UniProtKB/TrEMBL annotation:
A GO molecular-function descriptor: acyltransferase activity, transferring groups other than amino-acyl groups
Domain N-acetyltransferase per the UniProt entry, residue ranges: 119-250
UniProt cross-references to Pfam families, sorted A to Z: Acetyltransf_1
Signal sequence extent: none
Protein name: GNAT family N-acetyltransferase
SUPFAM superfamilies according to UniProt: Acyl-CoA N-acyltransferases (Nat)
Origin species: Brevibacillus fortis
Domain of life the protein comes from: Bacteria
Record's keyword terms, sorted: Transferase
Amino acid sequence: MADQVSSVPVFSQTITDFWREQFLNGDVLYSDEAFTVVKNPALDEDSRVMVLETSDGRVMAVLTPALADKIGLSQQQSLSESTFRQKLNEAGVTLHGADYLFYFSKADKNVLLQENLEGELRRLTEQDDTVFSAFRSSASEQDLYDAYVELDHWAVFGSFEENRLVSAASMYPWEEDAQIADLGVLTLTSYRGKGHARKVVRSICKYAYGQGYEPQYRCQLDNHASTALAKAAGFTLFGKWEVISPDSTD
């Protein structure tokens, strides 16, 4: 059971250790080759139940003891993912829409680190406030919300065309104790499909590796353009991650 996350061998130890800590730290309520449920009293309130399906098809769930009691989950002789989800549903527990989780494989990381990226690419700083403000004013509110690209994030990179910022990516450390940097990327509509997003994503990821961080790319399952960009930028799908919805009625 303890090797479930690490059964995806192409990813770094940083990634596999992080997710093992999230999902396999606690008392095992049920485990078989396909599905594992763990009870962990140390979970934060806003992550009191989480589900992870790794790309090899295995599913892990973790929840607080209080929530396990509420949905009537004790040590089980037999349990499936569908039954677990049904118990959550019957108790009024709603999961937020799943995110795809993408990371670089070890091999693709090595390719990235040896790559010389071409084009008008550079790191952005607070000195670029005017340029960045003009960039944001050219994007829709929905795109700004979805991308979550901010100039005051831990790292920001931009791609330019004729001295105009047309694509930007930013990163911030995802968890306090994890060397993982979550990224967002936004390209102005009329400049999409020209390779700007791919280059700016690869540039910021190369920077993150230089700072000792693993880049993380997340997107909703129905965001097909974002999924395509992740793959074009060299990421590999790690899994699908769900956490309790802020609107859950439990």
